[in-house]
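Posting here for the record, re: nicotinamide-adenine-dinucleotide.
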Amino acid sequence: MSKTILITGGAGFIGSHVVRLFVNKYPDYTIVNLDKLTYAGNLENLTDFEKADNYIFEKGDIVDKIFIAELFAKYQFDGVIHLAAESHVDRSITNPMEFIMTNVVGTVNLLNAAKNLWKGKEEGKLFYHVSTDEVYGSLGDTGLFLETTPYDPQSPYSSSKASSDHFVRAYGNTYGMPFVISNCSNNYGPNQFPEKLLPLFINNIRNGKALPVYGDGKFTRDWLYVVDHAIAIDKIYHNGKNGETYNIGGFNEWTNIDLIKVLCKQMDIALGNDEGTAEQLITYVKDRPGHDKRYAIDANKLKNELGWEPSLQFEEGLAKTIAWYLDNEEWMDNITSGDYQNYYKEQYS
Ligand code: NAD
Ligand code: DAU
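Prediction output follows.
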């Protein structure tokens, strides 16, 4: 069946993989990718499908409610998959207001536009909100985040995402907006902006620069290959139940320092360096303020109800990721010149 779907944030890391999957898998759908092209949005992530007949790119800001209303009137969307966000915890610590504007106000603008367009015709429509496991706060040494875990966000980023989740549920409850929400763990893979741990460290290793490990490095994250996240989003979009939340995770917990050591080993092999070369770059630095100790996802609801499981083992996903960054050095060099240098100096000096 033909549909017109709005995907927001499709020039970013996860969004570009979601747009690629939908454009290639659903030739009968029209996919409109709306992105502001902030520092994290990059049209170079989209070159392999940018000329597809069922793909349209729109540059714009979800905070601009007039632009958003016009966009909904122009395309008469059947569905929205909302990924656009300010997504980096460290940046939220230095500039929380940007996160409130995009993540909260921007989400409510989209909800209002969808509510106005779909009023009385909600059947077959869907607002899919892509969120994060960080809304649940931090775990101790044991336990897992379930869909029923109470929200306890600790950073300006996770607070803004939690707030947007609440607004989506409120629109479902108050106005009958058909919605689903998914909360995913840390993604890794091709096209991730090198402010996040893995691409940052891959880039630093290839340039022989220090690897800044926050605090004691004993913080735990659950890692998922980005394409598996995109596949989960496809499954939930098409088979998820209205009003439900689905946790997405890799069943793959690592402390940062253990993960970094595996990365260092694989980078030495990929670069043809002696074993131990990259590890010498590890440098412990001041901790992130309010750093969440441990995230770990129970993704069994998604597995049992919709039959989704991660397709890649971590070592395999990491090897593919490293190979992509080393094959795409120009992509990395283009985005790490200019403003990135100023960000890096401010964050790490
Ligand atoms: P990203 O920072 O790589 O990309 C965000 C995209 O949104 C960029 O293309 C940017 O240009 C665009 N954008 C930002 N502000 C905008 C605005 N005001 N209007 C329109 N577009 C705007 O982020 P990501 O890592 O791909 O994350 C995508 C989504 O997934 C986010 O909602 C994030 O909270 C969520 N998420 C991310 C992870 C992760 O590990 N990266 C894990 C779970 C959930
Ligand atoms: O859990 C999902 C979240 O994962 C997403 O919602 C966020 O958008 C995404 O950015 C990510 O958040 P994290 O804060 O976990 O990711 P980040 O890559 O920034 O950091 C991962 C871990 O590595 C974290 O414990 C902090 C640590 N770290 C990070 C950087 C950038 C370092 O030790 N040194 C660093 O330089």
